[in-house]
Every structure is written in structure tokens, then in C-alpha cells.
Amino acid sequence: MNRNRTFGRSFRYILVLYLILHHRKVKIMTAFVPIIKGFEFDISVEFYRQGEFVLAYSPDLDLSSYADSVDGAKASFQDALSIFLTETLEKGTFFSELQSLGWEIKLVPSPEFIKPTKRPDNTSRSEIINHAMIPVSIPIHAYAH
Amino acid sequence: MPTAYKTRLWIAYILSLGLVHKRTTSSHFVYDYPTTSAKSINRPIIVEQNWDMIPVDHINRSLRVLGKTMKDFKTFIQSQDKGSKK
User: Fold this and answer.
1) What is the H or E stretch that residue A131 is in?
2) ipTM
3) CATH code matching the domain that covers B4-85, chosen among 3.40.50.300, 3.65.10.10, 1.10.10.1100, 3.30.920.30
4) Contact (CB<8Å) B32/A93
5) Topology of A37-144 in CATH?
6) Which member of A115, B3, B44, B71 lies 3.0 to 4.6 Å from B32 by CB, making a disulfide possible if both were Cys?
7) Do residues B47 and B10 make contact, with C-beta atoms less than 8 angstroms apart?
8) How many CB atoms lie within 10 A of CB A141?
9) A124: part of which helix (H) or strand (E)?
10) pLDDT tens digits, one per residue of B27-79
């Protein structure tokens, strides 16, 4: 009789302990989510002259911007990139746009962005002044689209 | 062949296509079709507001987004010239 009571009590303790731990686990899991802010990849940007302008052009995104100097073009490109990301993520066209440019996007088992091998404009720049790699950060909520 | 075109001409052209000024973000004008329009583009058309001229390559890329060619843009410029001469 006593044995049964002890067993019942132990079982109850184990059940309560499991529920507490499970509850905590769920809380811990949700606490980790904000840490994963997004995913990052680099895009190549080339700088070249056209008339009085210096253009910053990324064949990876077919995106360009311009100014009268390399530094100015780079700053302007950063702004254009930010607008491109904001607008396409907002419209839900970001992934389709990347795919139309030839990007391969793998979300499983882990997110992977494979760059296109073909240039969108099929031109070769003979007078490239400078190259740069610029990081692109995609917020995690973008995957909801 | 010119290496750049006037910014105001380019803006007039994209407005003639039905695009509207959506917003201005750090010296860049952002243009897109209105949400009520049947037309849509995957990415917005971005124009630098600090410069009176736009390099040809930047225009060509924007034309690709719009599904237009340089020939279309030149035809528009010619129609503008004719209009101003009248």
C-alpha cells in the first residue's frame, strides 16, 4: 500500500517536473528566436567610369548607383541597396527577383544563397576602377513571404 | 552617343509610363506603379536627386526593369523636343 502511494507521489513529482521543464524549454526556445535576426551573404560591386560619373554596379543584383567619385558612388550604392531590399521585401518580390537574376536559393537544411554565374547585362567592363564586396542582410521575417 | 541624359527627362518618361513618386530616401527618389495600377514591377525605379544628369548604363538597367528599351526612351525624348518646338 505504502509502496503504491510512494510510486504515485513520485510519478506526480516526475510529471510536474516534466511540465515545468517542458514549459521552460518552450520559453527558452522562444527566447532564442530574436537572436537569429536574419541571413547574410556578400555581393560583388564594381566601379567604373562613364562620362563624368563613377558608377557602382553589382551584377549579382543588377543594381547600380552613381556619383562623381568612387567613395560617393559607394555611399550612393549603399542607399540604393537599402531601398532595393526594403521595397522588394515589402512587396514580397525579393526572392522572385533574385531567382529571375539566376540566384539559387536553398532554405533547407540551412539557408544558402548561390550567386548567378551569368551577368544580367552581358557586357564586360574594360575600365573597372575598383571592386568591393558588400554584405547583404536579410531579416528573418522576409521568409514569411 | 551620349553618356548621360537629363534627369528631368528621365523622370518625365517614367511618369508618362504611369509610375508615381513613392518616397524620397536619403537623396534618392523612389518611383513605382501605384497599388491601384494593373501594371507592376518587381523592384522600384531609383533616381539620384543630387545630379542633373543620369548615366546611360543606369537608365538601361531601369529600362530593363520596366520592360522598355533605349529606343522607347529616345522616341519619348524626340516627342518632347517636337512638343517644345511647336
Assistant:
1) strand A128-139
2) 0.91
3) 3.30.920.30
4) no
5) Double Stranded RNA Binding Domain (3.30.160)
6) B44
7) yes
8) 10
9) none
10) 899 999 999 999 999 999 999 998 999 999 999 999 999 999 999 999 999 99
Measured from the Cβ of residue B37, the count of other Cβ atoms closer than 10 Å reads: 12
User: Whole-model pTM?
Assistant: 0.78
Q: Region of B27 please: left (phi>0), alpha (psi -120 to 50) or beta.
A: left
Residues 38-77 of B with CB under 8 A from A: 42-44, 46, 48, 50-51, 53-58, 60-61, 64
Specify the DSSP element, H or E, that contains A26: helix A2-32
Mean pLDDT by 10 residues, chain A (145 residues): 64 64 54 55 92 94 95 95 93 90 82 80 72 85 56
Out of B4, B60, B61, the one facing A51 most closely (by C-beta) is B4
The grid coordinates listed for A48 are 567604373
